[in-house]
Design goal:
Layout (H helix, E strand, L loop, with lengths): L14 H22 L3 E10 L5 E12 L2 E3 L1 H10 L3 H21 L5 E5 L2 H5 L3 H12 L6 E6 H5 L2 H13 L3 E7 L6 H4 L6 E4 L1 H4 L6 H16 L3 E5 L4 H9 L4 E3 L9 H10 L16
Parallel strand pairs: 2-4, 4-5, 5-6, 6-7, 7-8, 8-9
Antiparallel strand pairs: 1-2, 1-9, 2-3
Helix pairs in contact: 1-2, 3-5, 5-7
Bound molecules: ligand C2E and magnesium ion (MG) (3 copies).
């Protein structure tokens, strides 16, 4: 835009942009301290099989307790990437999460783990080796781990990303497209990408039963996933009506505050224990199917 305005002009940053840059810098150095002082934690959000309420897995979600204030991941993941801290932080999250889930599995609980990765994490020099090392060190079998990436990661400048993710997939690791339907992944790509799971973005699920188009689109994604042999997970289930419609659509899996919130590892264990319904690993859902 500065160019369009012609020669002789200098692009000037607005004061709020400057403040923003300063804030990001400050956040960057604070993140370094936070990592050293162990202010980060991993929470786990259960994912269930909608037909049976069985907990098939958990999604690891990083938490930053800055002082005693939680900082949302959306606020610190960008700065963490810019300051190069996302690589050690992501590695820490992966190890913590693998260790926890490997422990559950050793207790003969058949449960999987999903971990989120950004494009920059995947582009890191030793990405493939570091994931393989985490599996090796914690004893989690590769087939119990799913990497969640957003559509952009697979489409924009995707050559190297896809190749790296394919190498992990060859080891048995699964791949999920997160926030499906909001990015650039055209349907044509879907058949060619090394993908196992699509996670329907909450913006579709939010409209279930309230918005005809969003309901139709959700139904179409569920069917598309099924026809392509992919596992579909609906994200952001908050209302019983959404759960009911997803079950009626035969959506295989779901996740959301109505099912269970993200929580500390110990709470996942007690939730599952106190909700035993004859079969281990089930949690009680509203509108339990007959
Ligand atoms: P995501 O991977 O799509 O994770 C789902 C987000 O939706 C989580 O937010 C979760 O707390 C929230 N959520 C789950 N169920 C519901 C619901 O029913 N309603 C609503 N309103 N929200 C729900 P969170 O933990 O704030 O994470 C936000 C994003 O930050 C994640 O989106 C993911 O992209 C990123 N993120 C979180 N942890 C990590 C991590 O360890 N590594 C990386 N690279 N990214 C992470
Ligand atoms: Mg995710
Ligand atoms: Mg998501
Ligand atoms: Mg998201």
């Amino acid at each position: 835009r500065a160019k369009e305005l012609g020669g002789g002009r200098v692009e000037v940053f607005a004061p709020h942009m400057h403040a923003d840059a300063v804030r990001r810098l400050e956040l960057g150095s604070d993140l370094q301290r936070a990592l050293a002082e162990e202010e980060f934690a991993v929470e786990f959000q259960p994912v269930v099989e909608l037909g049976t309420s069985r907990v098939t897995g958990v999604e690891a979600l990083v938490r930053w307790w800055r002082g005693s204030e939680p900082v949302p991941p959306e606020e610190f993941i960008g700065p963490a990437e810019e300051s190069g801290l996302m690589i050690p932080l992501g590695d820490w999250v992966l190890h913590e999460a693998c260790r926890e889930v490997a422990r559950w599995r050793a207790d003969s609980w058949d449960i999987g783990l999903s971990v989120n990765f950004t494009a920059r994490q995947i582009a890191a020099p030793r990405f493939v080796e570091s994931v393989a090392a985490a599996l090796e060190e914690t004893g989690l079998p590769p087939s119990a781990l799913t990497l969640e990436v957003r559509e952009e990661v697979l489409v924009e400048d995707a050559g190297q990303n896809v190749e790296r993710l394919s190498r992990l997939r060859d080891l048995g690791v699964r791949l999920a497209i997160d926030d499906f339907g909001t990015g650039y992944a055209s349907l044509a790509y879907l058949g060619q990408l090394p993908v196992d799971i699509i996670k329907i973005d909450p913006s579709f699920v939010a409209g279930l039963g309230r918005d005809e188009t969003l309901t139709l689109l959700t139904r179409t994604i569920v069917r598309l996933g099924r026809d392509l042999g992919l596992t579909v997970v609906a994200e952001g289930i908050e209302r019983p009506e959404q759960l009911e419609l997803l079950r009626e659509m035969d959506c295989p899996r779901g996740q959301g505050f109505l099912v269970a919130r993200p929580m500390a590892a110990g709470r996942v264990e007690s939730l599952v224990r106190t909700n035993l319904r004859g079969t281990p690993g089930r949690i009680e859902l509203p509108l339990e199917g007959s």
